[in-house]
Structure formats: C-alpha cells, structure tokens
Design a protein that fits this description.
mainly beta; 6-blade_b-propeller_TolB-like; SMP-30/CGR1_Lactonase; SGL; 255 residues; four-stranded antiparallel β-sheet; Neuraminidase; SMP-30/Gluconolactonase/LRE-like region-containing protein; single chain
C-alpha cells in the first residue's frame, strides 16, 4: 500500500482522468489538485466554495459538486468554475456532494447538504440527473426527491442500467435500476451494520462495487474499511486501511 500526503485540508473525492492522472479535492481550501509522483501537487482550479465531489465527463471537462455554493460547477476552457445548475424548480439545492457520469455523458449527483443536514430523523437528501433533451438542450430532473438520509457517493453500473448511492445515515447502498429507459426504481441493494455508514463508492468494469466507510476517528476506531461487493449483492471481501474517515475512492485501470 502506498500512502500519498496531500496538500490542502479536508481531502476528499480522488479521481482519475482519462490519461491516468490522479486528482483530488481539498474541500477545506476550495481547490482541486493534480498529483504526479513522486511528490508534485499542482492546483488546477479554485472554486471559492467547498467542493466535496469532482469528476471528468467523457469530453475531459471537470465538474464539481460544491456544497459551499450549493451548485454543480463546470470548469471552462479558461480553468474557471462556472455554475451549471443550482436550483430545481426555483428551490435551492442543499449542497451537492458527489458526481458520476454515464457513457452518454448524463450527469448524476447526490444532494445531501453539510453533514447533519439530512439525518435519520429528517431524511431530506436527493439524487438528480442532468440529461440531454430531444430538443438538443439539457434537462434537470430528480430521481429520488428529499427522502434519503445523507446520500453521499454515487456510481454508475458498466451497462448504465443502474445507479448505486451510499445512504450514509442508514448505513446502506441504494440501487436505482433503470427500466424502461429513463424510469428509475429505488431499492436497498446492501445493508451494512456497525460504524456510521458508507461514503465513497466506485463500480468496476465487471459490476463489482468498492465501498468506502466513514466513521469518526478516536475511541475504539483505529482503522477504516473498504467493502468489495459483487454484482449479485454478496460481500466478497473487506479491506482494512489506516484511518476510519474515508471521504472518497476511485479506481484506476492498468493499461
């Protein structure tokens, strides 16, 4: 296991570009850094807010889920973050937390607000998508509206037929299965126990899920864990890693 000491504060949402370059988000400083071994950390964009998630679309454009701005931002050619969307039907978002793209560049994101905003008592988190419309523009629509207890990470299945969302405060993974096209049906895919709940999530090419767990450091909690779950919903393996406060994960494939 290699350990990289990152710059910034409140590190989260590692991501990999199409060329294999590694990036990560510094939510505490509002920056995204590019990492190049052995020890180069170059800031690539400053949002001025609190980005919690970041992802490249299939054209290589960087998008940010910025909780501070309560908006989805897209970085333009001048490396400036611009607001892509920040309201739904004139209602402000609570604060987006993660982003994922389908193969057709449909953008999916979770809207949870700051930690504690959506809870077991008040499950008000949502999942949205931004998709192409028949008229040639884009349309924003909710897939799950104001009923999730802190939806955090989001991943798309390899066949684009399902979304997987980590619902942290209920300690579970919710699957949104698409059938027919553009109709999503939500169900519990996997229920965990112990700790606070799942945070980051990534889906492998074979449909295997890799799920990071978040728990407060201190006390009896000295390590973190990543659960590896098959496409059939069966737990295959649990990896232990240093530190329990996992705030994101990603996969990089060998060439």
């Amino acid at each position: 296991m290699d350990v990289i000491t990152c710059r910034g504060a409140k590190i989260c949402s590692p991501l990999v570009a199409s060329d294999g370059s590694i990036y990560y988000v510094s939510a505490g400083t509002g920056e995204v850094f590019q990492y190049q071994p052995p020890d180069t950390h170059a800031p690539v964009v400053f949002s001025g807010g609190e980005p919690l998630g970041a992802q490249f679309d299939h054209q290589g454009r960087l998008h940010l889920a910025d909780c501070g701005h309560a908006a989805i931002l897209r970085v333009d050619d001048a490396v400036e973050p611009c607001v892509m969307v920040k309201t739904y039907e004139e209602r402000a978002f609570r604060g987006p937390s993660d982003i994922a793209f389908a193969q057709d560049n449909t953008l999916f994101f979770t809207d949870s607000g700051p930690l504690g905003e959506t809870t077991l008592e008040k499950p008000r988190g949502s999942v949205f998508c931004i998709a192409s419309s028949p008229s040639g523009g884009q349309v924003l629509r909710p897939l799950v509206m104001e009923c999730l207890a802190y939806p955090w990470g989001i991943a798309v299945s390899p066949d684009n037929g399902a979304l997987f969302v980590t619902e942290t405060m209920k300690n579970r993974i919710v699957r949104l299965h698409q059938r027919p096209s553009n109709a999503y049906h939500a169900s519990v895919f996997y229920q965990f126990s112990g700790g606070m709940g799942p945070s980051g999530i990534a889906c492998g090419a074979d449909g295997t899920l890799y799920v990071g767990h978040y728990d407060f450091s201190g006390g009896n909690t000295s390590h973190g864990k990543i659960s590896i779950i098959g496409s059939d919903g069966i737990l295959k393996q649990t990896l232990k890693i240093p530190g329990p406060e996992i705030t994101g994960l990603c996969l990089r494939y060998s060439c």
